[in-house]
């Protein structure tokens, strides 16, 4: 059982999930250890998106209070909003159901957020818990390292001040992806800080066992970059606009350069272009040596950084075309 559910305590943990029975027990066991390291009372909520498996039964078995979302389209933003709105404690830790918190995290995070009243959110390092499960898990897990300090945004697993969430009314429930970037942008406009600390926060299983899953995740990211990039494009802080431009530009520019080199200088031009590419890859390979010590994994990660440009481009294009279709429908209507 998870102890410490006094609603007058200092912290509420909000776990969100949907058909998560295969990971939820591991998640709650990690909460037991993390909560055990605290001296304060902790309330645990599980927000369920309409599971048809044993998710809610597992949550109740561990002593969590269950909140059922009433929606035909459950999303992470709706789940987190339902959780923090039910909270009465000064701090709220969000945890995805496929995530296991590090034993020391809650103690470290609460201490860090209390260091400055203007810190809205604290997060730490995620680590891939199943890197041997697939090459996709192993490679994409390299994306997660973030140097400690102030940042523009955090991910879904993070500790928040309840009054900061109330000030901006939490996440935008219209967003199916990129909701964390949007939330943090609005918090920062009001003077709040988003801080990464140098500590392991949690272990997470990406669960990607196929190229299809890898592709789908990257397309979804490209879609989110486009939606958030355009949403704040004309503000003083154009969140993700550079990322959107890069996602849209790099694949066609690369093809155009290759075509131009072939047309203007034939094999010599292609060879020169290849030399430039190899030189850039060698520089990047060396630059990554402290972050990714394994030479084999560094090579795979570089291949990932190149290949992922295509699904990111597809995702951005998908959003732009869908946005144009919505505008035409509105005008015609």
Task: Provide an overview of this structure.
With 333 residues, this protein is α/β, with parallel strands linked by helices. It folds into two domains: 11-209, Spore Coat Polysaccharide Biosynthesis Protein SpsA, Chain A (Alpha-Beta Complex); 241-332, no CATH class. 52% of the residues lie in helices and 17% in strands. It has eleven helices and nine strands. Strands 1, 2, 3, 4, 5, 6, 7, 8 and 9 form a nine-stranded mixed beta sheet that branches. Helix 1 (21-36) links the parallel strand 1 and strand 2. Helix 8 (211-231) packs across helix 11 and helix 9 (241-287) runs antiparallel to helix 11. It starts with 10 loop residues before the first strand and ends with a helix. The relative contact order is 0.11.
Outline the fold blueprint.
Elements: E1 11-17, H1 21-36, E2 42-48, H2 55-61, E3 65-68, H3 76-86, E4 91-96, E5 99-101, H4 105-113, E6 119-128, H5 135-140, E7 149-150, E8 158-161, H6 162-168, H7 179-189, E9 193-204, H8 211-231, H9 241-287, H10 295-307, H11 309-332
Parallel strand pairs: 1-2, 1-4, 2-3, 6-9
Antiparallel strand pairs: 4-8, 5-9, 6-8, 7-9
């Amino acid at each position: 059982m998870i102890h410490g559910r006094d609603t007058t305590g200092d912290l509420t943990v909000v776990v969100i999930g949907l058909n998560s029975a295969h990971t939820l027990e591991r998640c709650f066991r990690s909460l037991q250890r993390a909560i055990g390291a605290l001296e304060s009372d902790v309330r645990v909520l599980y927000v369920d998106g309409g599971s048809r498996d044993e998710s809610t039964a597992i949550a109740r078995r561990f002593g969590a209070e269950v909140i059922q979302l009433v929606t035909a389209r459950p999303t992470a933003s709706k789940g987190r909003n339902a959780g923090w709105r039910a909270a009465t404690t000064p701090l709220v830790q969000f945890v995805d159901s496929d995530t296991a918190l590090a034993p020391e995290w809650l103690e470290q995070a609460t201490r860090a957020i209390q260091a400055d009243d203007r810190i809205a959110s604290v997060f730490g390092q995620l680590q891939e818990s199943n890197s041997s499960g697939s090459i996709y898990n192993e490679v994409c897990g390299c994306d997660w390292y973030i140097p400690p300090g102030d940042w523009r945004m955090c991910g879904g697993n993070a500790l928040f001040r309840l009054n900061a969430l109330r000030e901006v009314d939490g996440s935008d429930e219209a967003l199916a992806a990129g909701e964390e970037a949007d939330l943090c942008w609005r918090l920062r406009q009001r003077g709040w800080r988003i801080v990464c600390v140098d500590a392991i926060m949690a272990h997470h299983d990406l669960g990607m066992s196929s190229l299809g899953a890898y592709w789908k995740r990257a397309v979804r990211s490209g879609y989110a970059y486009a939606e958030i990039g355009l949403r704040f494009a004309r503000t003083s802080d154009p969140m993700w606009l550079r990322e959107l431009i890069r996602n849209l530009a790099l694949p066609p520019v690369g093809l155009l350069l290759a075509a131009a080199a072939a047309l203007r200088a034939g094999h010599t031009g292609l060879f020169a272009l290849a030399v430039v590419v190899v030189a850039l890859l060698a520089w990047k390979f060396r630059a990554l040596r402290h972050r990714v010590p394994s030479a084999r994994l560094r090579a795979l990660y570089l291949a990932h950084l190149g290949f992922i440009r295509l699904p990111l481009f597809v995702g951005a294009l998908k959003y732009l075309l869908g946005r144009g279709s919505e505008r035409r429908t509105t005008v015609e209507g």
